[in-house]
Amino acid sequence: MDQDIRLIRRMKAGDDGAIEEFVAKYYPRILQYCRLHIHDRGYAEDAAQETFEKFFRSFAQYRHYGKAGNYLYVIAGNLCRDFYRKRTERAREILTEELLAVQAGSGEMPEGEIERAQERLAVETAVDRLSPELKEVAILAFFQGRKQTEIARILGIGLPLVKYRIRRARECLAKALDGGESR
User: Fold this and answer.
1) What share of the chain is helix, strand, coil (3-state, %, to 5)?
2) How far apart are CA 114 and CA 95, in angstroms?
């Protein structure tokens, strides 16, 4: 019996320790997932917390068919897409403003941090320019380290399509980071 099933059963039985264990197990991954979609730490934390709120609000109706983490990714993905409908360029603007402030001499960032921030901005910009389908697969595969079969389950698509999208995302990102355009 997998750990998720045991945790779900304990949570349904009212075990607060199981709830804490569940959140401790999944929160860091969901937060990272949200952070990769939403480039603002505060908003990403809000989205991660809201993911768990939505999960627990509908917990009485929850039926465990596989990994609970996959269901959390679906919720988090929907919240991240909602965020982007509302604020598509805000996160990139914040990072760009920070870099410009540092370059103008009014920011407080060591030189190594400036280079890392510039690289991060380049990667985030390249990922943001991917089509929504490629972006979702790229984040799950490259940044979250999810297996292709898990990605297929999370997104509700076939494994061949996942493989195609990963290959295509890799090509687009390589081209964008080498100075070309993505898509």
Assistant:
1) 80, 0, 20
2) 11
